[in-house]
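Reproducibility note. Readers wishing to regenerate the assembly model reported in the main text can use the exact inputs given here. Chain order matters: entities are listed in the order in which they were concatenated for prediction.
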Amino acid sequence: MLRGCAGLLRSWALRGPKRGRSFSSEVLHVDHSLPNPSWNEDMRLLFDQFMKKSEDGSWKRLPSYKCNPPERIEDVKIFFPDAKLLKEQMSQAQQFPRSLGEGVGFEYAMFHNHVEDRTVCIFQGGPHLQGVPGFLHGGAIATMIDSALGMCAILTGGIAMTANLNINFRRPIPLCSVVVINCQLDRVEGRKLFVSCNIRSMDEKTLYSEATSTFVKLDPKKKN
Ligand SMILES: CCCCC/C=C\C/C=C\CCCCCCCC(=O)SCCNC(=O)CCNC(=O)[C@H](O)C(C)(C)COP(=O)(O)OP(=O)(O)OC[C@H]1O[C@@H](n2cnc3c(N)ncnc32)[C@H](O)[C@@H]1OP(=O)(O)O
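Running the prediction on these inputs yields the following structure tokens for the assembly.
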């Protein structure tokens, strides 16, 4: 069952949900990991570079939607049978990094390499993510790190949750700048997936942050 869910999740993550479901098309069908008018020149340049790398199939762009389709909610019930997923709340639920308006929050696109077990996230942090004036909030940086590492772990290992996340913030990230989050799967021990990443400037000269994380694959036999 676990393998089946992981397979479903992988195909959804790589190809997007099937059209024609009952969620509103704005919420379900708009792929937010494509260029929009808020993306600056650097973001577009990096996006084009990774799309070029994707031409031979080694890298794949990961589509990204505001909310999960109904089949994802069914997956959750397998692992959390006792969870009270209230209909009204679930109908309003959105993926946290996609919940802010275009351009003001998290603008990002992710690419995954299955052979190298690597995920790259290009990220432009908007003005509503400010912490110290002029710079990104550490929580916003942590959110993108967790999301990118999460995709890396899930796409390589199956359905898992963050158990542990350690971040070293080396340099402040200027608001509205574009950075690259490089993630990799380091090793797998039983149900534990060890992943790590760094965040660098576009020219790779500045190391902004480094992180290591443990994801634990969910066990459907356990009542989580
Ligand atoms: C559920 C269906 C999901 C469907 C997904 C759908 C769509 C995905 C779409 C997009 C994904 C985007 C990516 C998002 C990434 C964001 C991820 C998150 O932020 S998750 C939220 C934060 N995390 C949590 O809330 C987790 C809370 N913790 C738990 O639920 C549990 O502790 C657990 C992590 C599940 C582990 O519990 P479990 O009972 O299963 O494990 P064990 O205790 O038996 O331990 C197993 C193994 O792991 C080691 N372990 C456990 N905890 C830790 C820890 N904190 N640090 C280090 N190691 C840990 C433990 O020692 C055991 O090791 P060993 O076997 O060697 O003894």
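We highlight two features of this model. The pocket of LBKI3ST6 is lined by residues 9, 68, 72, 75-76, 79, 146-147, 150-151, 154, 159, 161-164, 190-192, 214, 216, 218-219, 222, 224 (CB under 6 Å). The helical segments are 2-15, 25-29, 41-53, 70-79, 87-92, 138-157.
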